[in-house]
Specification:
about 15% strand, about 575 residues, 24 strands, globular, seven-stranded antiparallel sheet, alpha+beta
Length: about 575
Amino acid sequence: MKRKYFSYVLVFLLPVIILASGDPVVGKGGMAATANPYATDIAVKILQNGGNAIDAAVAASFMLGVVEPDASGLGGGGGMLIYIKAEDKFYYLNFYPKSGSKEEVKQYRSLGSKNDQNVVCVPGQVDGLITAVEKFGSKPLAELILPSAEMAENGFPLDNIVAQIILDNFELVSKYPSSAEIYFNEGFPRMEGELLIQGDLAKTLRQIASGGRSAFYESVIADHIITEVNSRGGYLTKDDFRNFRTEISNPLISDYRGNKIISADIPQSGAFIIESLNILENFDIPALGSPVKSAKSFHLIAETLKRMYTDRSEFLGDPNFSDIPVEGIISKPYGRSRSLMINPEKMSPENYKDTETGNPFEYLQDSEAGELSTDENSTMAYLEYLNSPDHSGGHTSHLSVIDKDGNIVSLTQTLGTFFGSGLTVDGVLLNSIMTNFSRSYKPNIIDKAKQPASAISPTIILTKNNGAIAIGSPGAGRIVSAIIEVTLNILDFGMNIQEANDAPRFYCRKNEEFIHAENRFTEDIYSTLKAMGHNIQLYPEYDKFFGGVHIVELDMNSNTFFGSADPRRGGTAKAVE
């Protein structure tokens, strides 16, 4: 039977609800916010012991891989945005996984499937974290890793969030004895409060602590991973591991109403945060008020998101394999051109799926305009991929840290989907990043030693009021919209960072017939949006579908630090005492 969509429909998904406080954590010596209390605690401890923000972030990152193993860890990768105060300079570290270099990798066709292990890309997490410490840290690597090894060895009681995710992924985890013996107890998923012990992971962490990069990438650990993955149809080689290197580059920088926006370079999605803000800058949404109060503001943001996601699906890919018009995407004139396509009074076009792609190639300096894809099947294949069940969850993890000297880290890390591939080798749960490639969409089509497009977007904001904010989120495609909406709440609507995080969220893109929204907007908002042509699909009040934003802030006028953990997740923010 064909599914019908009404003006709004309540969808009963399992929510993660924590009562929002409205007040951020406040301190004077630094701040950390992560997706798990253990990770936040170790970050603060490192800061208290004289480490800088990079040391603290790396220690927290290793800890997240232990205590939130479903979302990230040694078998995955990510991106880290760093601000070094003494240099007044930003660096972006891209350690997202890459496909293997075998020619056979081009035969990959299992889009969104975990039926075999050809979903595993070369993990970048270990190289990324070690590179960060070597280039920007001040503590010995072992000091940052050993607390995580001890946690894995001694175990910790599962919280309700990870326990529920283990249950939700029962079929995947149960396929592999090496994973089932960790996450199951006598054949049943471990429950909230049960001790999760990861002995093999502890051994691997200790080897990395003593041997560094080579202990993971040029060792029996790498050999074991390659053998196990390739025996199940994978494409990895020893050279793939040996040659993996984190890319250090300049991040993308723009401004929004006098505030500096710094975000992840491609093939991650910071460009599309900037594009959205460039579009919205052409509307006086501060005067309209937040979407909680103004349906017109809600509408303008939704129409912006719809166009941004349309462009993202057309243009994002590995720049080493395709010409990506980044300068055009983030240019102010291009944002202006996209804003002119928005009708402030009603949805345009009348159907979400008819939203047109822009042409940022026209806004490149000293370049001829490029050609857009005209292959409708190719574009639809990519849109179907973005809407597939494997890419609809709240997987991935984010942490933010600022130290007493004003150094800042915004770090997002992932296994791809919850529990990644499901396969564990030497305690390392391996990623499913190959599922991020497209079958036929050219910028993101599979190739050898290539990074797929990713929604991760670690971001830093330097405000016109002499403040510094680190922000980021998990949440698959909703990562970008979550960061944009929280940023608007802070910069345009005058909310503190916890109020901005608590506020209800929504999500809109062209290949669906409705806007996803939490159920805390008013009936007047919904009815006005309906009159403007929108359909709304409602979710519980604080739903993990809409990300897990973790924010730290420094008010440089008062030298006061603020922290916020998303009430949709089990994370915490904590100040240095």
